[in-house]
Amino acid sequence: MAAVLLLSSCTGSSSQNAASQTKNNAEDKTKTIKVGSTSAVVSGLDPAVDWNGWYTVRYGIAETLFRLDDSLNPVPWLASSYKNIDENTWEIKIKDNVVFSNGEKMTAQKVIDSLKRAGDMNSRAASLKDCEYTAGSDGKTITIKTKEPYVALINDLCDPYSAVIDTAAGKDFEKSPIGTGPFVISEFNENTKAVMKKNDKYWDGEVKADSIEYINVADFDTLALSINSGELDVAQDLSPESAQTLKNNTDINLNMTTQSRTYQLYFNLETMKDKAVREAVMYALDKETIDNVQLNGCVLPANGAFLENSSYGGKNLKLRKYDLSKAKELLKDAGYTDTDNDGIVEKDGKPLKIKFCIYKRLAMENMAVEMQSDLKKAGIDADVTVYEKSTFYKSGDFDIGLYSIVTMPTGDAYPFLRDCMQTDGVANFGKYYNKEVQEDLEKLSKEFNKEERSAIVDRIQQAASDDAAFDYMGFNKMYTAVSKDVEGYLTTSNDYYQVTKDTYKK
Amino acid sequence: MYRKICRRLLYFIPVLIGISFISFCLIYLAPGDPAEVRLTAAGVNPSASALADMRVKMGLDRPFFMQYFNWLSSVLRGDMGRSYANDMKVMDIILGALPSTLVMAASAMIITICISIPLGIYTALHRGKNVDAVIGCISFTGIALPNFIVGIALLYIFSYRLKLIPILNSGGIKGMILPACTLAITMSSKYIRQIRAAAVDELSKPYISGLRSRGISEFDILFKNVLKNIMVMLITITGISIGSLLGGTVVVESIFNRPGIGTKMLSAIGARDYPLIQGLVLWITLVFMLVNLITDISYTWFNPKIRNI
């Protein structure tokens, strides 16, 4: 299979002419942009249901009050401004010229109806359910009163579950939600295909593309062949291997976008009590070489849990860097020496063997092999166990483990830190506890000042690193192949935004 | 005969219940929480309260036997439940995937039969000659090649290079050619060898010499005697193949972008989607039992010595 795909990449140039020819001959007069991915289409489009909002926003059907910029900071989108009146009260002004695709004006009351519906229907939006909403008499002011201080409200209003739809229009929200975006759904086949036509009534100007078609392509190699042959204009989320086969195609731009999805390294503090061993593991892992060389650059080495260009990038953090001799020294000082010259250190006659657990997700398996090799150089025998799912974490049956997680889904650091570091956090798999970290987490949940929040996040991350409780191997990079005929297709670190009014095919 | 068929159909009920119970137990015992899988679909940790709410909503907070009997009683009322992954009706999901699987299975089977019967008998008639060696060599290569290699190679040649067929499934007959051929190439390779072996065995029997000495034409010997006698074996392997094909062919469905029963089963297992897994298990069990029944009935037609089905 690899040989066949390699062949296709090597002979790419000769076939490109043929491909372009066929493409031109058969070119759709309406200039449809065809986007393929292994998960391009799901079972429904109602933004309030599960994760479907991600697709409603990606397809350009609906928009949110705020959106995340390149640094993952919320900026107004359908809203024009906001004010934090007191700890529990927010005032949001919405844009005056926004209309839904059915021509209805977007009023404050319609936004409230949509947000309430999301709060009622989506368990992730439970905080929106407990709020009190008031629409101003001017029709464009929304006042939200929260029960508890809700610091991340504006961030959460970037989450696609809060995409604004006209709840009074129609009932089939799963197949034809009415939003304010540049496109309108015209055909939807569950898990197969979604076709959108341009919204002639779009509030933010003329939409350049006539239509967009999203197609599920189940196999990565088929996906790569499809864009190579010109049947697709965009191939989203390619595997690193299939992306390699497109490198010689001069008609395609191959983009790599760093996501806020990190490969987090957990230490089980109940089974790995010796801090020196945990520190040795951290010093022994050469992240730069693993990510940039051995994984062909499909992972960006990380310094902390959050992307460097975000507000919580942790530029002042002092974290451990790769230092093999330091790792060996730490082990030696802790009483570990290689007495039988087998390359693995021993203490009290017992070799240093750790249970390294991973599950099948993205580049995790390849990464684990390289990590195992690095650990062996330090004299640590890491026994890698590969699971189907991440369920082994809950039982605590691991010494170290990799976890793939989006750390800033809406640009705020608190939910991630709470989940993995708070004593009762849902993802505190390593049973981490540090009194000062707990206090800082409490402060963070109530702190509204951005600079102060950033400082608290740094303190928490620094303490967790000093305790050798967590490490971060890197951020996942997403491969997207875009035909050079297509302009304005977005690839962002949060992966919410793809097509806009300015996306078009030449 | 009708009474025997009715009796066999009655046997289906305990078998279906038994298999559904075993599969329910196995899924239940497998690690993985369907509520957690659903809430972490996009890679974000769910809150503890969201997880608890989802478990209640999905009925996962109930005891094992209650979950199974709730499911069973719904099925007996004709309701196979809703998918845990996307809340769609299980019946709708299966019916949606079925046409693609049925058409692909039928096309692959027809191509296989059309290729393998003539070639199998031809090589048996010319055993030991060059043509037998060449076809034998091709058959062994076909058996050794996995489906995904054949599929990708066909896509590369006929879609990417020659541009005869679109890579992405267009939904028409054109889109069915390559997946059906992929399945047929592997199956035909096996069938040719099995038909050849059975035909060689049949042709070496004394009655063939008798027929030839009485001046019966070679065509009549082959098609009225040899073929009829190897039919029982052919029907047996065809029945098994049809059962497997209708149970889904994940790799081929995936390469040719034709989501069918196999793809649904794979994604349902990944999502720990109990209702969908159970629905698909029932479907696959039913298909195998029906195909077996039809196979057994057909034996009596080709070989009247076989009385009991």
Automatic annotation (TrEMBL), chain A:
List the GO molecular function terms. peptide transmembrane transporter activity
- Residues of the Solute-binding protein family domain: 73-419
Q: Which residues form the signal peptide?
A: 1-18
Tell me which UniProt keywords the record has, alphabetically: Signal
One GO cellular-component annotation of the UniProt record comes to:
periplasmic space
For this protein, the record's SUPFAM superfamilies field holds: Periplasmic binding protein-like II (SSF53850)
GO BP annotations of the record are: peptide transport
Originating organism: Johnsonella ignava ATCC 51276
Q: Which InterPro entries match?
A: Peptide/Ni-bd (IPR030678), SBP_5 (IPR039424), SBP_5_dom (IPR000914)
Note the Pfam families from the entry.
Answer: SBP_bac_5
Protein name, please? Solute-binding protein family 5 domain-containing protein
The superkingdom of the source organism is: Bacteria
Q: Which PANTHER family match?
A: OLIGOPEPTIDE-BINDING PROTEIN OPPA, PERIPLASMIC BINDING COMPONENT OF ABC TRANSPORTER
From TrEMBL, chain B:
Identify the Gene3D superfamilies for this entry.
MetI-like
Q: What is its main location?
A: membrane
Please tell me one Gene Ontology term that the record gives under cellular component.
plasma membrane
Q: Where does the ABC transmembrane type-1 domain start and stop, copy by copy?
A: 98-295
- Bilayer disposition of the protein: Multi-pass membrane protein
Record's keyword annotation contains DNA-binding = no
Q: Where are the transmembrane segments?
A: 9-30, 93-121, 133-158, 164-186, 230-256, 276-302
Any Pfam family: BPD_transp_1
Q: Where in the cell is it found?
A: Cell membrane
Q: Which domain of life is it from?
A: Bacteria
What GO terms in the biological process aspect are recorded for it? transmembrane transport
Keyword terms = Cell membrane, Membrane, Transmembrane, Transmembrane helix, Transport
Looking up PANTHER family in the UniProt record yields:
DIPEPTIDE TRANSPORT SYSTEM PERMEASE PROTEIN DPPB-RELATED
The record's family statement is:
Belongs to the binding-protein-dependent transport system permease family.
- Name of the protein in question: ABC transmembrane type-1 domain-containing protein
Name the source organism: Johnsonella ignava ATCC 51276
